[in-house]
């Protein structure tokens, strides 16, 4: 029997509807709306597209937005000054620094300039530590969205054999930490992993976040596994969907699986921050 599809578009829409209702109720009570600030350095077309999409979704849910676009020649010092000012602004609830930044900018220093209570994208080391400890705080947006999908489809993480393919600082690493904090036995694979197939074949839960179409053939998928394809390149995921759908129990489509939940989680965490600021 083909796998059941995990519908990220549906859950994201439900999440955004809930957010809009909560914001509407707060504004009717005389509160200011939540506000998310986006910071974009340079002219990368894909980054501009992502930021426009996030701003549109935020505004549609009733959030206020503040967009800060800086030139590609921006220095680390200027970017830090910009982020520190946003962190100190009481009208700002969440700060999103669009990744990646130009090579002359110290991205890690820029992330660390975001105040912990406004790190709604979960990119600071403080947020990572809290994820690893399971002590609350804001999750990285895409990993947090993946956990919400798993919960929506009643995937029990306690004791599950989980394999995460990809160790990027925005997705792979924080997701591995989150899964482990929720009781999974987690293996983190990367470009140096020997015999990737052997790891994938034993995974009860497989998450791939590399961005290399066809990296994982369908025949590698363990029968009955849950497959979360968080890779994306030219409209395709990392996993051979046609092959995997015949073996998995649950699987995310690409697109329409993980992607929609990233923005929904980002905005939901902005509203969480807003609750503590107003």
UniProtKB/TrEMBL annotation:
Domain Tetrahydrofolate dehydrogenase/cyclohydrolase catalytic: 6-121
A Gene Ontology term for the protein's cellular component: cytosol
The Tetrahydrofolate dehydrogenase/cyclohydrolase NAD(P)-binding domain, residue ranges: 140-276
Associated pathway: One-carbon metabolism; tetrahydrofolate interconversion
PROSITE patterns, alphabetized: THF_DHG_CYH_2
Keyword NADP listed: yes
Short name of one Pfam family: THF_DHG_CYH
Enzyme Commission designation: 1.5.1.5, 3.5.4.9
Residues holding NADP(+): 166-168
Gene3D superfamilies referenced in this protein's UniProt entry, alphabetically: Leucine Dehydrogenase, chain A, domain 1, NAD(P)-binding Rossmann-like Domain
GO molecular function terms attached to this record: methenyltetrahydrofolate cyclohydrolase activity; methylenetetrahydrofolate dehydrogenase (NADP+) activity
One annotated GO biological process: purine nucleotide biosynthetic process
Keywords: Amino-acid biosynthesis, Histidine biosynthesis, Hydrolase, Methionine biosynthesis, Multifunctional enzyme, NADP, One-carbon metabolism, Oxidoreductase, Purine biosynthesis
Catalytic activity: (6R)-5,10-methenyltetrahydrofolate + H2O = (6R)-10-formyltetrahydrofolate + H(+); (6R)-5,10-methylene-5,6,7,8-tetrahydrofolate + NADP(+) = (6R)-5,10-methenyltetrahydrofolate + NADPH
Matches recorded under InterPro entries: Aminoacid_DH-like_N_sf, NAD(P)-bd_dom_sf, THF_DH/CycHdrlase, THF_DH/CycHdrlase_cat_dom, THF_DH/CycHdrlase_CS, THF_DH/CycHdrlase_NAD-bd_dom
Presence of the UniProt keyword Chloroplast in the record: no
PANTHER family according to UniProt: C-1-TETRAHYDROFOLATE SYNTHASE, CYTOPLASMIC, C-1-TETRAHYDROFOLATE SYNTHASE, CYTOPLASMIC-RELATED
Purpose: Catalyzes the oxidation of 5,10-methylenetetrahydrofolate to 5,10-methenyltetrahydrofolate and then the hydrolysis of 5,10-methenyltetrahydrofolate to 10-formyltetrahydrofolate.
Similarity comment text for this entry: Belongs to the tetrahydrofolate dehydrogenase/cyclohydrolase family.
Subunit-structure text: Homodimer.
Protein name (database record): Bifunctional protein FolD
Provenance organism: Amnibacterium setariae
């Amino acid at each position: 029997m083909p796998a059941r599809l995990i519908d990220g578009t549906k859950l994201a829409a439900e999440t955004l509807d809930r957010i809009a209702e909560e914001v509407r109720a707060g504004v009717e009570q005389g509160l200011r709306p939540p506000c998310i600030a986006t910071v974009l350095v340079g002219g990368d077309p894909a980054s501009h597209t992502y930021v426009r999409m996030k701003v549109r979704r935020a505004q549609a849910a009733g959030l206020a937005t503040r967009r800060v676009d800086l030139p590609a020649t921006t220095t680390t010092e200027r970017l830090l000054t910009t982020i520190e000012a946003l962190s100190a602004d009481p009208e700002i609830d969440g700060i999103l620094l669009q990744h990646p930044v130009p090579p002359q900018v110290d991205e890690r220093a820029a992330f660390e300039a975001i105040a912990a209570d406004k790190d709604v994208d979960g990119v600071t080391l403080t947020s990572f530590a809290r994820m690893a400890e399971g002590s609350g705080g804001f999750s990285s947006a895409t990993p947090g969205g993946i956990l919400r999908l798993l919960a929506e489809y009643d995937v029990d993480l306690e004791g599950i054999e989980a394999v995460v393919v990809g160790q990027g600082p925005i997705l792979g690493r924080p997701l591995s930490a989150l899964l482990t904090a929720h009781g999974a036995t987690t293996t983190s694979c990367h470009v140096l992993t020997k015999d990737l197939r052997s790891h994938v074949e034993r995974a009860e839960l497989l998450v791939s976040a590399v961005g290399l179409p066809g990296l994982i053939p369908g025949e590698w998928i363990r029968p009955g596994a849950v497959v979360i394809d968080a890779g994306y390149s030219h409209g395709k995921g990392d996993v051979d969907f046609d092959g995997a759908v015949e073996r998995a129990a649950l699987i995310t489509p690409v697109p329409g699986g993980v992607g929609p939940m990233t923005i929904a989680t980002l905005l939901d965490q902005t509203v969480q921050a807003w609750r503590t600021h107003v």
